[in-house]
Amino acid sequence: MSTGYIVAFACTLVCPWVSGVTFELETEEFAPERGLLVTSRPTASNKQAVWMLASNYLKLEFCLSSETDLQVSDIVVSNDGDEDVVDVLLDWEKIAEFRTFKKSLGGKGWDEYKPIGPVGIKNRLSPGRHTLVLNVTHSDDYGVEVDKIEMTMNDEDLEEDVFRCRVFCYDHIGYTHIHGRDHIHSARAVQRSFKTDCAEVDNLKIPFYHRSVSSFMLTASHPQYKAFVNVKRPDFTNCEMALENLWRFEDFTYTNESELKLRGDHAVLTKTQNENHDIIVIFFNLRGPKRGDTESEIGSILSLGLQQTLDAPIEIGVQYFGREKEWSTPVFKNFKTEDFNWTISTPDFTWIEGPENVLRILLPLDTTREIEFDYISLRKRPVKEEVAFKIYDNDDVVLEGVDVDFWWQNGKQMTVNILDQGKTYNNADYLRFYQKVPWSEKGYAQTLALYQDGIARLLPITPPGIDWIPFGSSVLIGEFKPFFPRPAAPIQHIDIDLRKLELKVYYENNNTARMELKSSFDETSLLVTDMEFKRLSRWPFLMFKSMWIKNGNSDVDHVSVNGNDQRRILGGWKKLYGTSFAFFRKCLSKHNTLSPDLRVEILEAHNEI
Ligand SMILES: *[C@@H]1O[C@H](CO)[C@@H](O)[C@H](O)[C@H]1NC(C)=O
Ligand SMILES: *[C@@H]1O[C@H](CO)[C@@H](O)[C@H](O)[C@H]1NC(C)=O
Ligand SMILES: *[C@@H]1O[C@H](CO)[C@@H](O)[C@H](O)[C@H]1NC(C)=O
Ligand SMILES: *[C@@H]1O[C@H](CO)[C@@H](O)[C@H](O)[C@H]1NC(C)=O
User: Fold this and answer.
1) Which residue minimizes the CA distance to atom 5 of ligand 4?
2) How far is the CA of 340 from the centre of ligand 2 (A)?
3) What keywords sit in the KW lines (predicted)?
């Protein structure tokens, strides 16, 4: 027995660390790799253990994200027969050994799993991957069974996914070089995020408040981890897809005698009558801009299908009540015995946000026949692909406008005036700026996308060897109501000087700001100056938006303020105060692996009160 082992043992009685984190490793997970036999035992944890004989060894792997002291705090074993001796090796260096107790229970001893207590310790283990080996050095013919191993680390922040080498986080990553500015009042960043399991939802929402800001800078830079995979496809796992059907009722029968009342999620179908018709009426509720949705705005398709049971023709009409707040002129179709369905389109903006939408199916008055419906449904019309058009191209900079088929902002449009051309464009829902890639003859990289609703997305120039990198996080620039589900700061007009890459932005609420786009080899920044924002004391001027499910599956995982005060992006804080904020990833992400980190730096404020 080495002295190190004695010291280790003593330490476990008076532990050098008070708080730490403990994880268990099930041995059976690592047995196949060594060709060891996994036994089925009802009394073992996970009902399985690993059987080992002299000269067998078992190798377990784990990972650490920062320098840590580690204690093998327990090993659970069973034995029947003579004592066995097992070496414990950490990174192939012996740190301890333990013995099983001699026990002769004629085979029953195998079911008695016993913890042997703390066995060994290793101080200042480096971040990275490590191995723990159990090597049976002496045993009887029957060997020993090992059930599980428990390890305790004095790194409270160590997450289980990191310990199990499922996620790789880098302790050294941070933005300590981005300092705060003492002469400017701090901005306040407020946590308004929620949890999600869907990677295509922006669950992180962090609005920024500052009473007198007049200039700030946004900077997008490549993530600090070294990764050469460029995962950029969306991941819809666990996502609730937007429903195409606004409502749908199936398999019901209209009769003159019986009641008819069907309930859907946001719709009710029932029957009524007026002086001209027997009527099937559907009342329904639609989500609209107030909820960040387009259900009530976009055109729709009504489909109606009858069971194939008509014995004589029947005339059926359709009439609706929506945004116009009056009944539409009814349209009729004569269903002959061989027709069973009918599709009617309604134009965009037929409906209205909320519960005031009504649709009537008109039947001949005093209909005494049974009419069997296969279905009646209302769905959103299909959306066409967005159309990009070139606005400007001087070989260094390319500007495209993009017309989105159904832009969620209630049909609002911004006008874009290109000062270099003296020309105005009014059908762009968003703009895409491309800049020439320095390391290629003809390549361009998108560095900024600016949307009519005030959202901006920045990218550093695409690194050599890659076609494009994805956006991840985005920002909303402008004053907005932060409690709206989808806050917006609608832009009315932009004047653009493309030679200087300068934009003057005029918001719908009469605020204005100047923006300047600059790209170096590894960063793109948007300098916002001359901010004339009228209600800074009340509303935020900026919002950071992004996605975090867990470390390793996120577009951002940490935020740091004024170069210190590093926090997890979600949890543990409600408000942060500072003049410099860095949103970044410490953990290699499987989502948008190369999307950029983003910094927000307050540069100037109006004379402070
Ligand atoms: C396990 O122990 C045996 C006997 O002491 C030794 O020969 C062997 O090299 C050890 N294996 C490892 C992986 O340390
Ligand atoms: C409409 O009815 C015809 C038969 O008349 C059938 O072939 C077709 O599939 C129906 N369409 C729908 C959408 O039910
Ligand atoms: C329903 O129709 C039947 C004929 O099929 C008729 O005898 C009956 O009076 C009608 N009932 C009502 C309530 O109009
Ligand atoms: C913006 O200014 C125009 C013209 O001065 C005015 O009509 C409008 O009401 C203003 N809008 C807001 C939101 O203040």
Assistant:
1) 510
2) 7
3) Signal
Q: Which of 333-337, 481-485, 593-597 has the lowest mean pLDDT?
A: 333-337
Query: Helix or strand or coil: residue 251?
Result: strand
Nearest alpha-carbon partner for 52 in 149, 141, 115, 150: 141
Instruction: Tell me the C-alpha distance between 277 and 376, whole Å.
Output: 18
Ligand nearest to the CA of 93: 1
Number of other CB atoms surrounding residue 347 within 10 Å: 9
Interval 61-87: pLDDT, tens: 999 988 999 999 999 999 999 999 999
CA dist., res. 421 & res. 364, Å (int): 62
Nearest-ligand number for the alpha carbon of 342: 2
pLDDT, tens digit (0-9, with 9 covering 90-100), for 17-57: 556 899 999 999 999 888 999 999 999 999 999 999 998 99
Q: In Å, how far are 353, 478, 500 from 243, measured between CA atoms?
A: 16, 31, 44
Report the pLDDT averaged over residues 129-147: 95
491 contacts 452 by C-beta, under 8 angstroms: yes
Q: In whole angstroms, give the CA distance from residue 118 to residue 114.
A: 12
Domain 256-369 in the same topology as domain 6-163: no
% the chain with pLDDT above 70: 96
Per the prediction, the chain carries an average pLDDT of: 91
Strand 300-306 versus strand 341-346 pairing type: antiparallel
User: How is residue 16 written in tokens?
Assistant: 């050098």
CB distance 445 to 461 below 8 Å? yes
CA of 507, nearest ligand number: 4
Could you tell me the distance, in angstroms and rounded to a whole number, from the CA of residue 8 to the centre of ligand 3? 93
Domain residue limits, the chain = 6-163, 187-237+384-605, 256-369
**Sheet with 261-263, edge to edge strand ranges:** 261-263, 267-273, 277-286, 354-364, 314-321, 331-335
Ligand 1 pocket, mutate which of 87, 98, 132, 138 (most atoms under 8 A from CB) = 87
CA of 107 to the centre of ligand 1 (A): 27
Nearest to 214 by CA among 492, 525, 607, 506: 607
**Relative to the CA of 341, which ligand 2 atom is closest?**
1
Q: Is the CB of 305 under 6 A from ligand 2?
A: yes
For residue 55, how far is its CA from the centre of ligand 1 (angstroms)?
6
Q: Quote the ligand 3 centre to 254 CA distance (angstroms).
A: 12
Q: Note the CATH number of domain 6-163.
A: 2.60.120.260
Residue nearest to atom 7 of ligand 3 (CA): 368
Nearest CA to ligand 2 atom 9: 341
Q: Residue 139: CB within 6 Å of ligand 1? A: no
**pLDDT for 4 beyond 80:** no
Distance 258 CA to ligand 3 centre (A): 10
Nearest ligand by distance to the CA of 138: 1
- Tell whether the model's pLDDT for residue 534 goes beyond 50: yes
Q: What are phi and psi of 291, to 5 degrees?
A: -105, 10
At residue 5, the pLDDT reads 34
Cβ-based burial of 4 (10 A; exposed 0-12, middle 13-18, buried ≥19): middle
pLDDT digits (tens, 9 = 90+) for 195-252: 999 999 899 999 999 999 999 999 999 999 999 999 999 998 888 776 788 999 999 9
491/507 Cα distance (integer angstroms): 4
